[in-house]
Sequence to fold (485 residues):
Amino acid sequence: MWPFKKAKPAVSAAPIFFTNTLSGKKDLYVSIKPGVATMYSCGPTVYGPQHIGNLRAALFADVIARVLKAGGFHVRRVINITDVGHMVGDGDEGEDKLAVGAARDKLTPKDVADRYTKQYLEDIRLLNLDTTDILFPRATEYIAEQIAMIKTLEEKGFTYRTTDGVYFDTSKYPNYGKLGGVAEVKLIGGARIKVEDTKRNLHDFALWRTAKPADLQQWASPWGKGNPGWHIECSAMIRTILGTEIDIHTGGMDHIPVHHNNEIAQSEVANGRPLARYWLHEAFINIEGEKISKSLGNEILLSDISARGLHPLSLRYFYLQASFRSPVNFSWQSLTAANEALTRLWKIARETVKQAKGKSIYSDQERTVIALMRDDLSTAAALALLWETLRDEETSPGVRLGVLTAAEAVLGLDLLSPPDVDVAIETKDLPNDVQLLILKRDEAREVKEYAVSDELRAELETRGYRVDDGPSGTIVTPTLPSYNR
Ligand code: AMP
Ligand code: ZN
Fold:
């Protein structure tokens, strides 16, 4: 028996906990199948660009998946693309969002959906979402599956027909509203849902809507031409792609009272199984104290962030500074501070990688970073510990690299290969048009035309460069990675 081989320290044995809206508490994560985590996230309605609030939902799901993946799970994910049937508001009345987008952009619903799906995928790429195990199915590709599910609900006696279409009868399902509590559903749902004349109960919702002559999207069904209600797409896609019972379902807190309770009701009646074991919800972001809304005109897009010369990952850093379950307030000032902090972090990370020469050493700090993230995604505490370790000169480069590597796996901030920001670039290596702007600016400064030189500075900043005045003229430092300049 002697000598014992010294055991390698386990990467981490820390258990994973998530706050589960279904149980109302922090639950130990145990997957249905060992080693596999199935996860569904309600995705974008692609009738317009996604604002930074929508992107918070995507980032939240990404961090959950990263924690599971780093913990050894094979994470099978779906984010649905809603390209049909979603009304403005969560109810069944009003305008269809895709029809609104089609009229605005003078395009077909399909072209509108294509345009904004592409933009969403580009946004999440810039935000470093790990998309390797994600499928992005579109609702319009799963019409047959949605019809099949409605038929099952009809056969089981949970639906009724009206002139408007087919409705789910919530009075037949005693567990209706179990997510977040029935009282809350009544309160929030009651305030938001208009009881249409044809509906039997307040919370009943459309599974299939009879087509109106002007509807651009219509499909044949056993109930005549029409289109599916919004909620059924999630239930049908989950069942088809991930199975009747999944591990994790995510979304914004706004979806708890109506959309997610409706998904649960449909799926559990149709499948005879609980839909998801863990329901994880992220809180909302407000902008300068106000709710994000079209009518206030305060929607901020990722492209607005880049246009201000801030790195797209500054938004990721900004969100990681707080718990995903707390509402946060956005201001340009706090985003600029996040951008600066991230730029400094990249600088120290670059140094660490260089000093450690690829040798990382497992430490208590690394174990703690992992444990913090597994404890309900304590991103703020993990970031704080990362800073503390990297700044501590007593800590060896190997230990620092270990912490950096573990943190990067779950935070996704490009810490191991930071983008080429904050490294001044020689003028000759810049694109020709940027060289020309610099030349013009130096000429303007020589003849003291400061208004012109300021305009040229602003133009260079918009292109993604910080502008400084060096002894022999303009010095530019990129604030965006090369692919974004
Ligand atoms: P929607 O396209 O409206 O269904 O939104 C897509 C996702 O973004 C959903 O999970 C919403 O809950 C989420 N979401 C929308 N607005 C915000 C916001 N202001 N803050 C955080 N999440 C949001
Ligand atoms: Zn959904």
